[in-house]
Structure to design on (732 residues):
C-alpha cells in the first residue's frame, strides 16, 4: 500500500500499460519531452522513447483519427487530449467514427482506443477552457465514459478500460491531480459500470462523480454535524451508468440529490433524475434535487467563476430548502 | 358562442372520470364529432367526442385529473373569440346548465348521485411515499399537517399521524399469527363492483325464487342446431337458450323488465339482457340489445361477440349500461345453485347453476334427466313472490319445450 496522488496513480497506470503490452503506445500534444501539460506522462518519454511516447502536432482530429486507425490495425493506443474543451475538434472522429465502427461493420471492427482528457473548471482558465463535456459523451451509444474521483479508482478503472474493447473517454479533473489516496501495491481493477457508496447514510442520497464526489463528501460531513446522514454515491462510470446502485440507495433514503459540475441544462443528472423517478417514484419523500453548474460560460474572474461551480454550501442549502432537513 | 365541455356520464353508475389524455391541445381547432379526449371510467377507457366545433380555448381539467360527472373540463370558443369574461361563472355553473352533456340512451340519469364525488379532487400536497404510506397505514392525508417545504406532507408526518403511532416499519399493520396483514391496491373495476353491489344490496329489497328445470330436450335441440345449417356457423350455448327464454318470458311479464323509480315503474320497451362475464379484473355485465327481436342464432352471435370484446376490454360504455334484466351463469363451475345481486336499476337477475344428471320420476318410471336449478332475484318494490313464481314458471316452460325458442 502506498499513498499516491491521482497524477502518480495515472503515471503508474501508463507505465504499467507500456510495460505489459508492446501494442500500447501514447500519443498527444507535449506528452513526450515536456512530460504532459498536467505532467501525467512525466518520465515516460525518457524511459520508453519517442516511438512509444509520441508528441503530435496541435490537431485533435489527427490525434484521435490516428488512434482509431492504430486501434483498428491491432495496436492498443492511449491518446491524450490536453483538455476536453479541445475534444470538440475531434468530436466527429469520436462520435461518428470511434463510437460507430463496431456497429456499422456488423461487429467486424473494434476500436479499443483509450482517450485520456482533462475536464472541469475552477482554474481561472476562461470560458473556453473550463468546461465539463463528459456528460455529453455519456449520451453517445458506443462509447465508455469514465471519470474517477480518487487515485485508487483512477488506477483501477484505467486497468479495466485497457481490457475493454470499446473506445473510452477517460475524463480526469484538472483539480484532482494532487488529491492523495491509498493505492495497493498488488494488482486490482475497478470494473466499468459499477458505482461505489463512498459514505453510508440513511436520510438522503447524494450522487456525484469526479471532483463533485469530494464536494458531496464535504457536504455530508456538514450535514452529519446536525444529525442528517447522507449516503454518497460515486458513479465512477457515466456510461454504462450504474442505475441500480442509485435506485437502491434512494429506495432506502427516500431522497436524492444529484451534484455535477457541468451546466444545469445538460449532463448526466437529468437522465439520472428521470431514472430515479421512474424506478423509485413511490419511495420519494421529496423532489429529486439537482445541484449543477451555472448556466453560463465560465467567467474569468476567479470569484465569479467559483460562484457558478457547486460547492458544499450549495449542496447543504439545497438539502435544507428542498427537503426541509 | 363559448361552450363548456363537461365530464360526460358514460353509464348509470359513473360518478367521475379520469382524463387520460387530451387529444386536442389548447388553441387547436376541433370539429363536432372529432375525438377530444380519452376518459377512463371504472370500466374502460373511452374516447369522448366534441359536441361543438371551434377552438379549444382552455383546458380546465389536466391529464390525470379525476373529475366528477358534469364538471367543466374544457372551454370551446369560436375561431377568433377570446375566453369569455364570465369564465368564472361558467366554471361554477351547475352540471345541468352546461352544454355537451351526453344523454345516455335508455338509461336515465341517476338522481342525486352524480354530484356526490366532488370532494375527491385532491389539493393535498404530499410526497409519493407519504401518499403510499397513508394508504397502507389507513391515514387520511386531509387530517395530516405537512412539515415539509411549503407545507408538503412527508413520510415522517404520515408516520407521526398514524393511529397508534411510533411505527418504525411500513409493514406495521396488525398481524395474525406470523404472517403480517397486507393492504393491497385493487383495480378500479373492483372498486366499482364494490360500490355498485353495496348500493344494490343496501337499497334494493331482494327476494329469491328457485326452480328446477329439465334441460334434457334443450340439450338435444342445441346439439341438433349446432350440427345443422340454422346455426350459421355460430355455436349456440345453453346460456343463449336461457337468454332467449328470458326474453320471451319478459315480453309477457314486463315488470321484470322495468326500473323502479321513486314510486313509479319505468317500463322499458326493449328487452336488453345483460350477461355476466368474468374478466381478469372482475366482472362485466354487458347487454345484448333487443333480445325480444332477436332469433336464437342472433343472440348467440351477439353474445359471442360481447364475451370476446369484454375480455379484450373493448366494450363501449352503452353496452354495459343498457341492460334491463340480467342472466348470471355459473353452470360451468359445477355449482348446484346460487343467488345473484340485482344490477341497478334493473329489477331482476337469473342465477343459473349447473346441469346435472338426476333420477326423475315421470309417471311411475324413474328416468335419468338433465336438470338445472335457477334462482330468480327480484326487486320486491317491483313485484311479489307470486309474480316471480309465474315468471319463473314461464321460463321453465319455454326451456322444457324448447321448440318455442326457435320462434
Amino acid at each position: 500500500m502506498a499513498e499516491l496522488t491521482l497524477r502518480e496513480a495515472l503515471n503508474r497506470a501508463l507505465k504499467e500499460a507500456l510495460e505489459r503490452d508492446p501494442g500500447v503506445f501514447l500519443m498527444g500534444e507535449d506528452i513526450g519531452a515536456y512530460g504532459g501539460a498536467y505532467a501525467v506522462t512525466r518520465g515516460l518519454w525518457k524511459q520508453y522513447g519517442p516511438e512509444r511516447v509520441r508528441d503530435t502536432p496541435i490537431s485533435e482530429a489527427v490525434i484521435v483519427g490516428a488512434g482509431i486507425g492504430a486501434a483498428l490495425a491491432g495496436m492498443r493506443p492511449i491518446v491524450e487530449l490536453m483538455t476536453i474543451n479541445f475534444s470538440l475538434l475531434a468530436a466527429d472522429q469520436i462520435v461518428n467514427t470511434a463510437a460507430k465502427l463496431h456497429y456499422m461493420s456488423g461487429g467486424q471492427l473494434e476500436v479499443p482506443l483509450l482517450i485520456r482528457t482533462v475536464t472541469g473548471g475552477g482554474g481561472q482558465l476562461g470560458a473556453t477552457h473550463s468546461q465539463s463535456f463528459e456528460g455529453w459523451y455519456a449520451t453517445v451509444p458506443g462509447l465508455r465514459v469514465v471519470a474517477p474521483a480518487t487515485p485508487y479508482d483512477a488506477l483501477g478503472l484505467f486497468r479495466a478500460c485497457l481490457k475493454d474493447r470499446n473506445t473510452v473517454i477517460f475524463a480526469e479533473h484538472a483539480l484532482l491531480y494532487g488529491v492523495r489516496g491509498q493505492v495497493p501495491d498488488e494488482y486490482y481493477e475497478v470494473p466499468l459500470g459499477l458505482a461505489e457508496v463512498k459514505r453510508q447514510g440513511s436520510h438522503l442520497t447524494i450522487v456525484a462523480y469526479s471532483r463533485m464526489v469530494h464536494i458531496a463528501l464535504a457536504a455530508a460531513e456538514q450535514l452529519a454535524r446536525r444529525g442528517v446522514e447522507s449516503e454518497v454515491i460515486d458513479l465512477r462510470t457515466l456510461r454504462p451508468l450504474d442505475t441500480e446502485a442509485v435506485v437502491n440507495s434512494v429506495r432506502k433514503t427516500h431522497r436524492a440529490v444529484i451534484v455535477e459540475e457541468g451546466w444545469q441544462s445538460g449532463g448526466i443528472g437529468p437522465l439520472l433524475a428521470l431514472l430515479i423517478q421512474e424506478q423509485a417514484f413511490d419511495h420519494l419523500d421529496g423532489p429529486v434535487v439537482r445541484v449543477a453548474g451555472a448556466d453560463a460560460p465560465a467567467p474569468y474572474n476567479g470569484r465569479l467563476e467559483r460562484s457558478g461551480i457547486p460547492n458544499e454550501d450549495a449542496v447543504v442549502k439545497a438539502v435544507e430548502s428542498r427537503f426541509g432537513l | 358562442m363559448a361552450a363548456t365541455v363537461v365530464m360526460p356520464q358514460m353509464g348509470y353508475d359513473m360518478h367521475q372520470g379520469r382524463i387520460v389524455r387530451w387529444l386536442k391541445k389548447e388553441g387547436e381547432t376541433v370539429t363536432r364529432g372529432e375525438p377530444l379526449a380519452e376518459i377512463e371510467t371504472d370500466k374502460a377507457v373511452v374516447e369522448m367526442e366534441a359536441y361543438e366545433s371551434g377552438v379549444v380555448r382552455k383546458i380546465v381539467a389536466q391529464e390525470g385529473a379525476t373529475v366528477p360527472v358534469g364538471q367543466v373540463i374544457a372551454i370551446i370558443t369560436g375561431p377568433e373569440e377570446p375566453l369569455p369574461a364570465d369564465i368564472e361563472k361558467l366554471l361554477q355553473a351547475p352540471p345541468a346548465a352546461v352544454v355537451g352533456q351526453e344523454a345516455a340512451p335508455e338509461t336515465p340519469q341517476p338522481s342525486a348521485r352524480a354530484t356526490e364525488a366532488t370532494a375527491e379532487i385532491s389539493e393535498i400536497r404530499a410526497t409519493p411515499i407519504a401518499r403510499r404510506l397513508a394508504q397502507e397505514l389507513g391515514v387520511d392525508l386531509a387530517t395530516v399537517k405537512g412539515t415539509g417545504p411549503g407545507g408538503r406532507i412527508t413520510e415522517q408526518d404520515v408516520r407521526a399521524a398514524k393511529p397508534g403511532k411510533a411505527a418504525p416499519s411500513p409493514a406495521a399493520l396488525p398481524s395474525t399469527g406470523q404472517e403480517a396483514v397486507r393492504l393491497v391496491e385493487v383495480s378500479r373495476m373492483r372498486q366499482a363492483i364494490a360500490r355498485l353491489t353495496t348500493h344494490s344490496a343496501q337499497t334494493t329489497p331482494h327476494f329469491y325464487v328457485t326452480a328446477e328445470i329439465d334441460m334434457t330436450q334443450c340439450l338435444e335441440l342445441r346439439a341438433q342446431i349446432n350440427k345443422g345449417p340454422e346455426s350459421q356457423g355460430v355455436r349456440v350455448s345453453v346460456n343463449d337458450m336461457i337468454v332467449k327464454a328470458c326474453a320471451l318470458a319478459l315480453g309477457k311479464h314486463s315488470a321484470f323488465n322495468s326500473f323502479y323509480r321513486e314510486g313509479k315503474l319505468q317500463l322499458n320497451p326493449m328487452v336488453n339482457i345483460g350477461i355476466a362475464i368474468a374478466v381478469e379484473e372482475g366482472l362485466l355485465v354487458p347487454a345484448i340489445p333487443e333480445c325480444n327481436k332477436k332469433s336464437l342464432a342472433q343472440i348467440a352471435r351477439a353474445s359471442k361477440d360481447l364475451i370476446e370484446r369484454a375480455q379484450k376490454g373493448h366494450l363501449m360504455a352503452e353496452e354495459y349500461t343498457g341492460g334491463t334484466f340480467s342472466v348470471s351463469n355459473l353452470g360451468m363451475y359445477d355449482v348446484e345453485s346460487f343467488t345473484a345481486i340485482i344490477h341497478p336499476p334493473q329489477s331482476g337477475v337469473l342465477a343459473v347453476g349447473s346441469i346435472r344428471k338426476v333420477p326423475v320420476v315421470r309417471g311411475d318410471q324413474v328416468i335419468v334427466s338433465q336438470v338445472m336449478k335457477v334462482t330468480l332475484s327480484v326487486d320486491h318494490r317491483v313485484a311479489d313472490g307470486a309474480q316471480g313464481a309465474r315468471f319463473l314458471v314461464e321460463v321453465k316452460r319455454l326451456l322444457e319445450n324448447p321448440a318455442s325458442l326457435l320462434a
Remarks:
- The two ends of chain A are 39 Å apart (CA to CA).
- The mean pLDDT of chain A is 97.
- Chain A is about 35% helix and 20% strand.
- Residues 196-320 of chain A form a domain with the Rossmann fold fold (CATH 3.40.50.920).
